[in-house]
Design goal:
The chain has 644 residues and is α/β, with parallel strands linked by helices. Helix content is 29%, strand content 18%. The protein has a seven-stranded mixed β-barrel with strand order 21-22-23-24-27-26-25, surrounded by four helices. Strands 7-6-3-4-5-20 form a six-stranded mixed beta sheet. Strands 17-16-15-18-19 form a five-stranded parallel beta sheet, covered by helices on one side. Helix 6 packs parallel to helix 7, helix 10 packs across helix 12 and helix 20 crosses helix 21. The mean pLDDT is 96.
Length: 644
């Protein structure tokens, strides 16, 4: 029996555990990336391990999230990350060089390699034939120290692409169609592997758009084969030496099979407030809009920008619409300036932003009250834009640009014939905004520069024998990391300061939660289905840790957040009977007898609701390694003991 593409790479990198379905396996990591919103904690954690130099083939620190410097905090964080990178053997991508996923795809991605990044959209590089996985900062720190990254051997889903996209239908519509079919929970515990004749019709940037938004499926990662299209992209980047062909065996066996006929797709949009609330532009109709934002790690490639420039050329943005455009990297911006695309976009009245995450992470460009905003981004969670009642629709660059001119949601097929857009045979390569680390023999002389906003990792405690704690918060289904630990221009600068940022924990759901949890000393959170979906931000676990949360009991978890809870030493418990969720109220006192013994033995755990004099059962399914992590009080303490 042959292997899938994902299995080939995973098997070649497995260093711990049996390569058997549903087993936990430890894989060797070739590359890591961080961004500044998660990087400071990741490097504080790396320092705590006491390792002098990173042990990966390549680790890169990007500055792309917290680039709005309205106070000293972000600038101090950037200075800290730069000094850590110089000292410990990490490449440093300076502010203005671009979004981590776009730059990594251009300059560092390579077929057959493994990559983990402290950002959930790291699977972007799956468009290059990599196993690229979003993870918590502590997992990235361990990988930088030479430790394995652990996942449960996932199911592999074959998404077979047939046909070819029709004019004005985009790669964004492919992933929106998949989200429409299987939902934001449909990829949990799975790798999405794209095959079929339709693959050959998609460029690397288009493939990267699709793998990028695989994160919204809840998937472990998504991947395309490495073929002649991949080689062409790498040649244009001057990196063809890293290429080799890589695809699934012809007799590979998949766990699921989905067919998407590209020729039948039409322009679509994800409606508020979930990426899987997908309808066609026709279904939604000609809806008046207030704002359009084009960019993000999903749709900021040169190919995207060329299409936008063509649509805007010689026209003017509708007077009722604010249009903002963010090129994904300095390379993209440079080439736009050279080929005239930038002039066309500026001439139409667009507001050109720096090459950074910007509005996607809530850094500026919040829409007006109740405003309808079309965005080429990957998430439209309620309030993520910075406007609580903002109505965000996720669309392709083609839909976004056409609508910005029209003043209403517009089907770009109304524009007539579409020219053929081709990537250049050679990109303008200039890596002058990537700072190399100090030579190892000079590293000891490098001083780590810390600002007053940079605080230490929260204190953790070993797993207790018993637990008595109140339910400090009860929430519903599909709670995102934006609910747990909001982003935005006001909160992101506090990412290095867990005591300060914890004051905003769950503020979207209950502004009183932080004070209540602190006053309780220790508590338990109760939630519904798909708890913790969204970004990889470990702050959504570290803030509750600081506030005294000892366990989270839910119907089901999103993958990365569950792992982040374990890494923080917080017990991830799941109801045996989801109906038991209804019998718990905020304020109820919950008691677990023999907690430590039951967790370590892998036994069913009985929780007594002292307030109601009832009982219910929960499970805590952990590998032997995870049990060790929880027993120590988290991955940092476990790693100190085990990684030498």
């Amino acid at each position: 029996m042959g292997l899938t593409l994902a299995e080939k790479i995973l098997k070649a990198h497995t260093v711990d555990g049996e390569f058997i379905k549903d087993n936990e396996i430890g894989i060797k990591i070739d590359q890591t990336l961080t961004q500044d919103a998660t990087g400071t904690m990741a490097y504080i954690e790396f320092e705590a391990m006491g390792i002098d130099q990173v042990r990966t083939e390549r680790s890169v620190a990007y500055i792309d999230h917290n680039t709005l410097q309205s106070g000293f905090e972000n600038a101090d964080d950037h200075r800290f990350i730069a000094s850590v990178a110089k000292k410990h053997g990490i490449y440093y991508s300076r502010p203005g060089n671009g979004i981590c996923h776009q730059v990594h795809l251009e300059r560092f991605s390579a077929p057959g390699k493994t990559l983990i990044g402290s950002d959930s959209h790291t699977p972007t590089c799956g468009g290059m034939g990599m196993i690229a996985i979003g993870a918590g900062g502590l997992d990235v720190a361990v990988a930088m120290g030479g430790g394995a990254y652990y996942i449960t051997y996932p199911k592999i889903v074959n998404v077979e692409l047939t046909g070819k996209l029709q004019p004005w239908v985009a790669a964004k519509d492919v992933i929106l169609e998949l989200l429409r079919r299987i939902s934001v929970k449909g990829g949990v515990g799975k790798i999405i592997e794209y095959t079929g004749e339709g693959v050959k019709t998609l460029s690397v940037p288009e493939r990267a758009t699709i793998t990028n938004m695989g994160a919204e499926l809840g998937a472990t990662t998504s991947i395309f084969p490495s073929d002649d299209v991949t080689l062409g992209f790498l040649k244009a980047q001057g990196r063809e030496d890293v290429w080799f062909p890589l695809s699934a065996d012809c007799d590979a066996v998949y766990d699921e099979h989905i067919v998407i006929d590209l020729s039948t797709l039409e322009p679509m949009a994800a409606c508020p407030h979930s990426p899987d609330n997908v309808k066609s532009i026709k279904e939604i109709g000609k809806m008046k809009i207030d704002q359009v934002c084009i960019g993000s790690c999903t749709n900021s490639s040169l190919l995207d920008m060329l299409k936008v420039a063509y649509i805007l050329d010689g026209k003017t943005v509708h007077p009722d619409v604010s249009l903002a455009v963010s090129p994904g990297s300095k390379q993209v911006l440079n080439m736009m300036a050279e080929n005239g695309a930038l002039s066309k976009i500026i001439g139409a009245g667009a507001r050109v932003l720096e090459s950074a995450c910007g509005p996607c992470i809530g850094m500026g460009q919040s829409p007006n009250s109740g405003g309808i905003s079309l965005r080429t981004f990957n998430r439209n969670f309620e309030g993520r834009s910075g406007t609580k009642d903002g109505q965000v629709y996720l669309v392709s660059p083609e839909v976004a640009a056409a609508s910005a001119i029209a003043g209403y949601l517009c089907d770009p097929r109304e524009l007539g014939n579409m020219p053929e857009f081709k990537l250049p045979e050679k990109f303008a390569v200039n890596d002058n905004m990537i700072t190399l680390p100090a030579a190892p023999e000079c590293a000891k002389e490098v001083e780590i520069l810390r600002g007053p906003n940079i605080k230490e990792y929260p204190i953790t405690t070993p797993l207790a024998d018993n637990l008595t704690a109140d339910c400090s918060l009860k929430v519903g289904d599909n709670i995102t990391t934006d609910h747990i630990m909001p982003a935005g221009a006001k909160i992101l600068p506090l990412r290095s300061n867990i005591p300060a940022i914890s004051k905003h924990c769950f503020a979207v759901c209950d502004e009183a939660f932080p004070d209540r949890a602190l006053s309780l000393g220790k508590s338990i959170i109760v939630g519904g289905v798909n708890y913790g979906q969204g970004s990889s931000r470990e702050h959504a676990a570290l803030a509750p840790l600081y506030l005294g949360v000892k366990a989270v009991i839910v119907k089901s978890f999103a993958r990365i957040h569950r792992q982040n809870l374990i890494n923080a030493g917080i017990l991830p418990l799941e109801f045996f009977d989801p109906a038991d969720y209804d019998a718990i109220d905020q304020g109820d006192t919950l008691f677990i007898d023999g907690l430590k013994d039951r967790v370590l033995a892998g036994e069913t755990i009985t929780v007594k609701n002292v307030s109601k004099n009832t009982e219910f059962k929960v499970k805590c399914e952990l590998s032997e390694r995870m049990k060790g992590v929880i027993a120590c009080g988290g991955l940092l303490e476990y790693t100190k003991e085990n990684l030498k």
